[in-house]
Amino acid sequence: MADLINVYINEVLVSVPKGTVIVDAAKKLGVNIPVFCYHPKLKPVGMCRMCLVEVGRRKIDRATGQPLLDANNQPEIAWGLKLETGCTTPIEEGMQVRTQNEVVKKAQKDVLEFLLTSHPLDCPVCDKGGECPLQNLTLQFGPGTTRFDYNDKQHLDKHYPLGDIIFLDKERCIQCARCIRFQDEVADDRVLGFYERGRTMQIDTLSEPGFDSKFSGNTTDICPVGALTTRDFRFRARPWEMTHVPSICTHCAVGCNLTLGTRRSARDRQWEILRVMPRQNEDVNEIWICDKGRFGHHFTRSQARLTTPLVRKNGQLAEATWDEAIKLVAERLNVVYGHVVGFIGDRVSNEDAYLFGKLFREGVKTTRIANRPHVAGADLVQKYGVGSGTNLGALGKGTVVLIVAGDVEETAPVYMLRLRAAAQRGAKLIVANARETKMDRYAANSLRYKVGTETQLVYGLLNAVNQGSGIRDQVAAYTPAKVAEITGVPEAEITAAGKLIAEAKDLIVVFGDEQPYDIMVNGQYTDAGRALPQACANLVVATGHAGKANNGLLSLWPHNNTQGVFDMLAANGAQWTPADGLKALYIVGSDPIGEGQTLPKSEFTIVQELFLTETAKQADVVLPALSFAERDGTFTNAERRVQRYYKAIAPLGQARADWEIIRMVGEQLGLKWTHYLTSEGVMAEIAATVPQYSGTEYAALAQVTEAWPPVGSNDLYFGGTAYDNRGGVGVQIKSGVELDGQSEMNWIEPPVPSAESTLHVRQLNRHGTLIDQSAVYQPRLIDAPIEPAQVLKGA
Amino acid sequence: MKTVRSMVLVSNDPLSQARGAQAVYQRLEQEIAARGLTDEISLMTVDDVGRHDTVPMVIVYPEAVIYGPVKPDDVAMLVEEHLYKGRIASGLLAPARELTGRIAWLSARKGTLPAEQRIVLERAGLIDPESIEDYIIHDGYVALGKVLTQMKPTDVIAELEQSGLQGRGGAGFPTGLKWKFVSKAPGDRKYVICNADESEPGTFKDRLVLEGDPHTILEAMTIAAYAVGASEGYIYVRGEYVLAQQRLKKAIEQARALNLLGENIFGSAFSFDIHVHAGAGAYICGEETALIESIEGKRGEPRSRPPYPTTHGLWGKPTLVNNVETLANITAIIRNGAAWFRKFGTPKSPGTKVYTILGNVNVTGLIEVPMGITLREVIAIYGKGMKNGSSLSLAQTGGSSGSIIPASLQDTPMDFESFGKAGVSLGSGALLICDDTTCVVDLAKVLLNFFRNESCGKCTPCRIGTERAYQILANICEGTGTRNDLAQLTMLADSLTALSNCGLGQTAATPIRDMFKHFSGEVDAHIQLKVCPAGVCSMSGRRL
Predict the structure, then answer these.
(1) Given this structure, which CATH class describes domain A378-556+749-792?
(2) Whether the complex's predicted ipTM surpasses the cut of 0.90
């Protein structure tokens, strides 16, 4: 670490990087300087005055520029006449800070007394009670009594809805502006602000509809009092009643680390999730999650969940025992031996997918398994994806991030926060899309191409970089001038973006699937669908950015385990072949009919599901599966970080984990699978047999590292206990290139859009089977694409 | 160049407008034209002059005669008599009255103020503020020409440092040093800001400069920009100063037309331009960092310092922020030299100071006198003594963020050094002179009411402390204050000063501290005897 500076906090020496503020320097020593408005993830403002400390600086001889020394040869210190805010004052060489003397203690007591005279002290009914910085700091630093009358309190609105989900208690608010600053600085949805001034100053929303942000819930976490509460959690539990269980969000491919606050209800003795909070993982989501992840947990306790196996009798699905259902499944699979096709969704765990692949390979003796046909290029990401050790939170100067054909905010909201922050640290973003997205705000180059011409644009950039040995001849045709003609992006912009890529020390290529092309036809990936991922891979390989940390491909996968399911199926040699002579279908965690697709005709259909979906309604046997919160497992996120989640609540009814159901089927088919007692056992086998997944045993996934800034745990002031990561930070697995050192480029002719080409647009808040179960989130959900149709059409 | 014989002002405040000032103005225009006097007489409107009983008014200079209320039909006679024949139209004269405000100064100024020394106000009231030619004829843009053709930026700063000019916004920071800081701050872009958000109650010194001599501000800002290396300037004008804004904008247009602003000024390599930015009524925006936030389009809240605006100001760039009165000294200093400037005032506080005189004196108004005059002299010479022969009980210097001083300090020279030693703030130069009909506790209550309303709310001590202090003072005024209240008030004052982020919170405690320091007897009477010696407080026995 360059530029370490020595400062003395309460006479103890600490060396910290240049630019560190006093509060953080003290924190390194374990010295708590109390704060309210300061938050390590936000810019300091010095509003609350809680962090006032006494600061001394060395006296400097004006003639020589050297510090003056006293009789003991120690630098003479000039103590400041006034206290200074520790959160805004950067440390200087030789600085002395006193955080505990009488002057400082008095200042701390005074500020707390001021705050408490205007605070309602309704702690007995406050959501924050028990994990409240105001309570904590009052206990540690506050005055025992107040000198002012109690009847001086303001009486204000206690249930003021800022938006559809977030409420403001105006009495509790201490005007620290953390929420405003989060919205401005981190989320970049500037929807909160102060109204009025002085004592009447209050937070209010500036947007219509109110608090219009995908990240609003985070403000309730960082609120240092109970002023901001969610419609979901308010007044439902005291924080100390809850058991906090580490988990992983299942709503997108970022894989945000969660803490599920659970409790066994006194009323019906059922376990339930009361609150979802982010769990600190500086490599993945830091301390943020989006609102969908926070409020989308209600499907785990939905009344509509399947609780018993169902078997079709006399044309109707009727309840059955596990024994009956599994026997029937095995019996039919034996009869149709080999003529089975499996569908598995990309929301299930690695263990589920691995065992499903193994069941087909060993038990059903077929390799005809289809991953759900959502995206193309998982093989390329497996090979050329971001190298192990990649951390979007560390990107800065010298890094170029190219984003093609994807709306980061709508597909992977937390990546938007991370990439925006990277841009603020000096990384250059090249944002290429057919329509405007939020990322354009942070782009060094915004490239707006005609619908369906994204692949040509990528080759135009590659041509501008002037590389691509393996496919040199083909790329040579895509000169910036020609690509400008095809895509409608000005030639100068293509050249400029190409220059950025050529000069990049690190290059990450993020691609999505906002394309007009069908990715899969008759079970086969189409060239049109594979062209863009291949072009992106070619760009990464040609510019020498494959197989290194902070370099490579990053796909905006639509679901939480797209990559992991692909990896598991690939490990079992699964592939799709056309379904002639098909007799049975085995569908796990997938609803093709509900998504408007048609299933191949079959005599017997098995469905493993949480809900009686449209597909399940057509099935002959429906097997009830467990949600992520009721079981253990692992997911592989878009950055190929394998992360572990834990059982948080008791299973509903007789439902069982997908891998367990598959194991039962396997055993019934005569496989010796008794060693798969737990999901841990399955993962141990994956780690042992799948080369890329070596080192992903459960124990390794549960390792935690010391995180900075330290939030949660015993921390006094950066918010609740639930941030604390006790479940592990996961393991980022190696890319294929890192393992074998081999890379190659392949040419797929870029598809040409027609005038009728319509963009497939992904939106976070579209209706869906799982999110529809969250009543609290209903106001946010939308039916149709928001974009005007003409924007989506091709050339 | 036009020289005029008479200057005719038509009052144009809202009330005058409602009573037909516009029609009077038009008739004047017609009548003057009809008599062929257009070239000899300058006709203009004037904003609120502080008198509303006889509006609309027509004021004629140099005689300083006030007519009012004037009806359109009176205009023909007025022009005939006064402007054509040179006789005062006595039938239309405004009734004699105890004059206040700016009118008092206007009517009293002729030949009665021998000790006044005008540097800041050297042209205000003498030239046509809407005519750049008139400004140039009165030595305008001479200083800028000298700076751009004969001086290096370092020379300008050296001259200023030698002059000993201190900031006139209240804090008295050496201006030359501030310019030096900005000039040495690294940065590709720098800014010069003129703080014209004159919101201190009872202060209107800057307004007179802005309305009467706008070009001197433009010229001084351009000189400052040259000295510190800035390329853009902002004048942040108090929102209520509509006329000042109009005149500044007009002056900027005129200066641009003559290439005294814009690209390559005076044919030199130096370019500079100025924008006028109107405030929106927040007192806190007079604080320089809040002002900068406001220009940036944000909520007017003071930043925490360091870093200071000299290195991280507007848009994060080095920024020079000077008060109007400070800038109004610049051109004279450059023209006449630092040594000339040092002839005025005291050795440690050279120059003059503009004071606004308010309160229980016979003549209120605005004066510019050398630094070091005493309050007793101000009251005797310019205030024409205390009203009704009463005696001085207390005075407040420097507006609401200034000090409350007892009569015993009236012989202290008013300069930065002497006042600093006495623990008194010179502040904005407002002098509120009070006799024994003013209750000091009531005054403090009024001031704290002002502060609690104007606190931006950003920092905790100020947001809550000013409110709490006001409540305690209000209770004392209602006769329900207790000893404990006084103890609380003392602690509050200490906390406000020690913990607040900016000057507003830090000085909000000054009235309280001064009250305890100089007027403990009065306070005790409120608490112990439940009596207000001045008979002002209601002592109703209520408790808030």
Answers:
(1) alpha beta
(2) no
